[in-house]
Amino acid sequence: MRIIKWKKQLFYAIKNIINTLNSLSAFDQFYIKIKGNRWYWLFSIFCRLSLAYAFIVAGMVKILGERFASGLSTIHPMGAYLEALHHTGYYYTSIGIAQVIAAILLIIPRTVTLGALLYLPIIVNIWILSLAVRFEGSFVTSPLMVLANLYILVWNYDRLKYILPFKKPPTYGIVEKPKKYSSKFPILFFFGVVVTVVLTIAIFVFGYEVMPRNSLSDCKKQFVNTKKQAIGFEFCECIHKVGKPLNTCLEEFESATK
User: Is 74 strand, coil or helix?
Assistant: First the structure.
């Protein structure tokens, strides 16, 4: 009798699992599948630790009262911003504290989702700023960090879904860590990661005709032995010697090339 009862319980348990899976969307089914894959899990840990390390370093610089990217000239577009930010007192320090807190929350498994939510607006702001002033110090890393942050949020979708504006969130609850991960290597996913990194670097290298670079000499190197050498040198001096805004120097460069 006990064996029969145990078989019935197992049958109903399997039936409930099948019914649950059938009621889930394609995304939810895929999500449950990837949560059981060791490679996706390892990549999530890599993203967490990489992002945490970056913010601990950057945050501690601010907490200690040092200017971030101190080697950058104060008349450089990014240097001018960082110099002004450095002189905002406790506001500058508070940014560093927020970065360190976000990093610590990312490291602790139970607070990963909260850390990723705190991390996102900060790193998106850095990304937009880097694009706006074409700062090569974070031109490549900041968009990759945004993507890594988004990956962590997607990885923790089972927790995040309860605060998303769903009419009826999926009912499978928090996905427990599997006793044994699948070792199947997700070739397409990691190929996509490699392509994303390559495209990001390619945009940095070929996406803009001119870049202010971090120094006058580095700026001039991009124009050496080209048809726009003289005009390019004027652009670099406009940035690094005169200290005009980037948009103004770009407008003068474009006008001279017409």
Answer: coil
> How many angstroms separate the CA atoms of 117 and 208, rounded?
31
d(CA 104, CA 109): 10
For 37, list phi and psi in degrees, rounded to 5: -100, 130
Q: Is the pLDDT of residue 106 over 90?
A: yes
The structure tokens listed for 2 are: 């006990």
Token reading at 91: 């506001």
- The pLDDT value given to residue 17: 47
Phi-psi region for residue 213, left (φ > 0), alpha (ψ -120 to 50) or beta? Answer: left
- Span 110-121, pLDDT tens digits: 999 999 999 999
Distance CA 203, CA 197 (A): 10
Rounded-to-integer distance, Cα 158 and Cα 28, Å: 9
| Per-residue pLDDT at 119 | 97
Higher pLDDT, 224 or 28: 224
H or E element, residue 249 = helix 246-257
Residues 6+ apart with CB under 8 A from 111: 105
Check: CB of residue 227 under 8 Å from CB of residue 217. Answer: no
Q: What is the pLDDT of residue 32?
A: 87
What is the pLDDT confidence band of residue 164, given thresholds at 50, 70 and 90? confident
Q: What is the DSSP string of 128-184?
A: HHHHHHT-TTTTTHHHHHHHHHHHHHHHTHHHHGGGS--SS--SS-SPPPPSS-B--
Closest CA to 48 of 59, 36, 56, 60: 56
